[in-house]
Amino acid sequence: MPNSPVPRRILAIKLADLGDLLLCEPAFRSLRRAFPTTRIDVLTTPASTAVLDLIGHDLRAVTFPKHLFDSPSALARPSAQLQAAKLAVALRTARYDRVVVFHHLTTAFGAWKFSALVRATGSRYVAGLDNGRGAFLTHRTTDRGFGARHEAAYMRDVAVVAGGAEVTAAPRVQIPDGTLPPPNLPHEFAAIFPVTGKFSRAREWQAQRYADLALRLHQRGIASVLVGGHDANDAARMIDATSPSSVDLTGTTTLPELATVLSRARLVVGGDSFIGHLAAAVGTPVVSIFGPSNADAWRPAGALNWDGRWSPPGTSLVVRHDLPCEPCIYTGYRLGRPEGCPDRTCLKLVTIDDVDAAVSQVLGVA
């Protein structure tokens, strides 16, 4: 919209967990490059605000507890209605010139709630992804379904529709100056994150297989540094007991410290989660183990499917088995099955030898 006035304030809506907010970095970069003096507020969850410091671009957080807005029954509670009313007043008072919705309109209720948020702002300029439910959008880019484009590319495209600049769709982060790594960090190590987060434990490879991988790395002279939140403590203890050179940092690092650890690793290994995206954003190669989740939508930036053939050392790789039922989470225009199937065959078929071969390829060793 070359003839549109430069907006004074933009509201970016991304009520998401850490990983999905990080994947919006190219979109925020696009907006900031086009509008260097515009105030950009990001409506997100309280737990995700720490990512904004790594993303940079002079973004300001506006927080709202997403779980209060996740279902009609949750929103029906008086306490939730009160918080929603307070948010609506704050959004209207801010007088946003443009609103950018960085979400798929996957369900009818989801489309309604984002429409309600947009109405609360009073903005006449609303950009977003349209899969047929985006009647409230004034500027849209077509949603072709999960995996038709990488999520970071989808979000960047939304920003461009909102007047942003053309930028690459690979997320980047800025580690704050003065951030120091933990003092016990080995000189030569791989970072392993054995837990993928609360949204779907179906994405997690077995902890015992991570333990076997850590032992193989130890035998090559490479220590394993175990990272993640407190929910990874139990898996980390199992891995730590197997590999004599492992270091358990689960639940002990701040987000900037975690980024520093990942930036110093030779490679990072884990499932579909935020830490894989953060590793790619700091420039460290990743071996990502995918099962029921959609690798075409959420693979770390630049990662290739590992098929046993040669790839340049240092290239991030996705290890998975291409079953007819895979993926079953976020495919097409549907949420799918966040907990996968009871057998979780797709992850069981990924063997320690599969992952070890991919690790060897990334490291450039036989």
Describe this structure in words.
With 366 residues, this protein is α/β, with parallel strands linked by helices. It folds into two domains: 153 residues, Rossmann fold, CATH 3.40.50.2000; 175 residues, Rossmann fold (3-Layer(aba) Sandwich). 35% of the residues lie in helices and 16% in strands. It contains 14 helices and 15 strands. A seven-stranded parallel beta sheet has the order 9-8-7-10-11-13-12, with helices on both faces. Helix 2 runs parallel beside helix 7 and helix 8 packs parallel to helix 9. The longest helix is centred in the N-terminal third of the chain and has 17 residues. The chain is globular, with a radius of gyration of 21 Å. The termini are far apart.
